[in-house]
Amino acid sequence: MKSGKVLTIGIDIDGTVTSPSSIVPLMNECFGKNLRYEDCLEYNLANIYKITDEEFADWLDQYGERLYHEAPVHGNADQILRSWHQEHKLIYISAREDRHREVTLNWFSRYHIPYDEVDLIGSHDKLASARKWEVNLFLEDRLENALQLSEELEIPIFLFDTPYNQGVLPDFIHRVYTWEEVNHKVKQLFPQTASR
């Protein structure tokens, strides 16, 4: 087996490796609502739940640990990431804060999800981190991130389809619906990965 990794893949965690709908039941429970995931037509859930950004930040302070602990895996992300790790470098770049490192790494361990680095940057601006790790492609669910990364880095972005990221996409951004589809598209875009 060759020692070098073929690709360096940047991967968001929430809504990408975890199920994008996982936050809704907990927010419903806490705010006494009965919203559906399909009702979340914008990324900023403070607007959806009609609360202030400060109230959402306070809620995340209080419930972030539970949210990150309980989040289910998105489809068969765990299986595909295990298969990728044999030939690709997996760099997770998340807006989670570093104080959630322990719960994050415990979650990765519980689902046997491999990683080379977990970069919890505490911000939605992932550009500097993506540059630092020299990623060749990026997996994301937030449209604004996908647009910034594709424009600045000119690399392929796989955007997982959600109610809150609809719209016309530029050439570098590929809307995807399942992890199987991502796996297939990686092999299409990077033929050297399909020859193993």
TrEMBL record:
EC top class named in words: hydrolase
Q: List keywords of the entry alphabetically.
A: Hydrolase
Q: Which GO terms describe its biological process?
A: deoxyribonucleotide catabolic process
Q: Which residues form the active site?
A: D12 (nucleophile), D14 (proton donor)
**Top-level lineage group:** Bacteria
Q: Spell out the Pfam families in the cross-references.
A: NT5C (PF06941)
**Has UniProt tagged this entry with the keyword Hydrolase?**
yes
Q: Which family does it belong to?
A: Belongs to the 5'(3')-deoxyribonucleotidase family.
What is the protein's given name?
Nucleotidase
Q: Please tell me the species this chain comes from.
A: Brevibacillus panacihumi W25
